[in-house]
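re the bet — no i am not wrong, look at it urself. input seq straight from the record:
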Amino acid sequence: MNPIFTRREALKGMAAAGGTLLFHPENTFDQKNLKMLINRKIPATGEAIPVVGLGSWQQFDVANDAAEIPSLKGVLTKMHEMGGKMIDASPMYGRAEQVIGDLTEALKLNDQFFFATKVWTSGRQEGIDQMNASLRKMKRTKIDLMQVHNLLDWQIHLKTLKSWKESGKVKYIGITHYTDSAHSKLEEIVKSKAVDFVQFNYSIRSRNAEKSLLNAARDNGVAVIINEPFDQGALFRAVKGKELPGWAADYDIKSWAQYFLKYIISHEAVTCVIPGTSDVKHLEDNLSAGIGKLPDEAGRKKMTSFLESV
């Protein structure tokens, strides 16, 4: 994974150009909207979760005494206030699991979130040891969703996860990857109905998943988590200094982040998208994409065509 191009850089460029900013005064979250976050059902159980969650790669990989800790606490607090649920982590993300566990415990919010993490190692016992360590770090005796990260030794780990699910140690099991080249293998596993969730990359400019993977997940009752929604920041770079089109307001879009996220969650197969951030305002902006109108098929085509023209 490459370093993230932050939306702060895009914001500076837009301000310099006098264009539409990423944040607007009217975009401040109103407490009365707490019940308005769009929810999608997890096909395996019918449990509903909000369509926008939180990724933790890079942002939550910090020391206990890091300067970022107060901001991360603010992100988790605001997420809870807005009704957000899913927080996605992995042993691959350094100290992210530990920081998430410590902060949510300190905030007395640990049991208020939907925790998704991963197993990222080879070997049955190594996987068991790592997953047990993840539960300890995240302060849980059971986890909402355990996924096999980037398909590493996935056949071995899915056998363990099936057993853990039967015993109640995990509620859902899944697989993940972040490249187009893995989509065919993900689709094969999805069609085997061996998992409850599949996580993969998808964005308004990286639409390989639209060929068949998204539909395969929908048709086989597998929930979908989307990673890389901003193409590792490339989307913000593409619109740096550009104004939103006037018709974006028809879909309650008030920022470029919402433009990109609403395109993703407007696909009926998507259960949740997980943009990462350590900034409270960015978190609020991201979650606000899960409020209000979503584009229909004609709107989605208009969105892709406009982006191709800038």
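see?? The domain at 49-233+267-292 is CATH 3.20.20.100 (TIM Barrel). told u. also The chain has eleven helices and ten strands. so pay up
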